Amino acid sequence: MDDSENPHGPFFQRFGWDDTAALAREIESVSADLARARKDDDEPGQLAAANTLGNLLTTARQEKAAADLEEWALALARRLGDKHEEAAALMNLATARQYLGQRDDAQTLFDEALDCGDPVLESAIQHHRGRCYAEQGRKDEARLCFQRALYLRTQAGEPRAAKSQAALDALDAMSEPVAMPVTNIRDRLTRTSETP
Predict the structure, then answer these.
(1) Mapping DSSP to helix (H, G, I), strand (E, B) and coil, where does residue 20 land?
(2) What are the distances in angstroms from CA 83 to CA 19, 38, 75?
(3) Mean pLDDT across the stretch 13-38?
(4) How many other β-carbons are positioned within 10 Å of the β-carbon of residue 160?
(5) Average pLDDT of 111-120?
(6) Which terminal residue of the chain has fewer beta carbons within 10 Å of its beta carbon, N or C?
(7) Is the separation of the CB atoms in 145 and 189 below 8 Å?
(8) Which of 40, 48, 58, 50 is nearest to 1 (CA)?
(9) pTM beyond cutoff 0.90
């Protein structure tokens, strides 16, 4: 999908499904899982399905619906004391907020997700956070996140290590931030107007 018309883009290496029909089917399937878990009063099942569905909705460019669902999932995870699902909800909520243009809020949520101390999700959180930093024009912070994700993924033998390496390569190739912060634009305009 082309993000050039999105008011909050452009985005740095945003994930997407090539087969949108398959994505829609997956959303429908997980929505049915969530409905069943609610009917059965299965709160852990609801939580797992909500986190999966929130991730899928963000991928389908339905970030507002994803954020609403992840806020609910986050509250449930905290009530249940499930740190793994809490970290997943925080990461998914952060990613939805990132793509809604709320990148500073997203960074706070990524911090909270890392504070959950879930070693299984740390590489994914670091990778997502790196993308957000890249979109904020914070290349040094982005590089550190991608390097950490690459290290963790390589140590675990994960195939996604290649995605972290590709992100580092793309970051090094960037000459300008993906989405320059307003303060940087203002500073550049001020310096330009002061030059004789």
Answers:
(1) helix
(2) 32, 21, 12
(3) 92
(4) 16
(5) 92
(6) C
(7) no
(8) 58
(9) no
